[in-house]
Amino acid sequence: IWGRVTMSDSAELKNLDMADFKLNDYDNIRIEMPEPPSITEEDIDAQLFEYVISGGKQIQSIADLGDEWVRDNFDGLETVQDVRQSIKDQYDKEMEYQLNDVKLQNCCEALIARLEGEVPEDVIQNNIDFMRENNQRLLDGMHMSFEQFLREEHMTADQYEEKLRDEAIYQLKLNVALDLMADVLGTQVGNHELTEYLSTPDPEAFLAEIREKNQVENARRAAVRIKVMRRIVDTAIVNGVLPGADQSDDFGFVMGR
After folding, report:
1. Are 145 and 101 in contact, with CB atoms under 8 Å apart?
2. How far is residue 192's CA from residue 252's CA, in Å, rounded to a whole number?
3. 43-to-2, 64, 73, 180 alpha-carbon distances in Å
4. DSSP reduced 3-state for 16
5. Per-residue pLDDT tens for 101-151?
6. Per-residue pLDDT tens for 27-63?
7. Which of 44, 107, 163, 174 makes the best surface tag, with the fewest CB within 10 Å?
8. Separation between Cα atoms, residue 84 and residue 226, nearest integer Å
9. What's the rounded Cα separation, in Å, for the pair 57 and 61?
10. Nearest Cα to 111, choosing from 2, 248, 236?
11. Residue 29 dihedral angles phi and psi, to the nearest 5°
């Protein structure tokens, strides 16, 4: 049940005075990113060896994996080299997803570091209560007791409460920072754009539901945060390297450059 909902509206800000907060910098976010490791031929051999183990008695070593075996076991692939390339392509795709997650997290933390102002304790506690209740609903849906959850997470009840607090403060500060950035940038999301930023399997049903529950503006606020966060990630200066010129200009007008 863990995992930061970094741009959701779960962190309620209605009791905050936004005048108590400011960002000390509105320019492009600067982050450091690790160089992605490359898959080696030995790594690919190790993956092929998994096929050896599961191949039965007729497959004794990687050398036994011939083109005929490939055609019998892989749709659309013809040769062992095709399989090797497929393994590499899959690795590269998974690594790209992982690095995108790291980049997003680094950008979120860098944005929060620019925020000046403290979230009142009562607002923090309200959000902790919200998160605790939401987590309990998720556990109920999985037919898992709270005690079982703690055992599986190797966590005490006190550690759980501490983690809830950390998560609540993180989300509150991030949402405040995104709202401040959205105001400066003048970011808007029209009704027709909501499902572009708020992923849903049934866009029409989602729009009908938020209209029925008078939640359109809450959904819009969440969508604006996601739109701003995407822009921050796309324009981030990574390892000192500027993004493309068309992106690096995005924040230039804010700073009057």
Report:
1. no
2. 28
3. 31, 18, 21, 46
4. coil
5. 999 999 999 999 999 999 999 999 999 999 999 999 999 999 999 999 999
6. 999 999 998 889 999 999 998 888 778 766 567 778 8
7. 163
8. 38
9. 10
10. 236
11. -65, 140
Summarize pLDDT for 172-196 with one digit per residue, the tens: 999 999 999 999 999 999 999 999 9
Return the DSSP state at 69: H
What is the 8-class DSSP label of residue 129? Answer: H
Best CA proximity match to 24, nearest among 255, 234, 239, 229: 255
> What is the total residue count of the chain?
257
- Report helix, strand or coil for 115: strand
How is residue 107 written in tokens? 């950008």
Tokens of 133: 């209740």
Which H/E stretch holds residue 209? helix 203-212
Token pair 């729009």 is found at 207
CB atoms within 10 A of CB 240: 7
Q: Please tell me the distance from the alpha carbon of residue 28 to that of residue 232, in angstroms, as a whole number.
A: 7
* CB-based contact 163:210 (threshold 8 Å): no
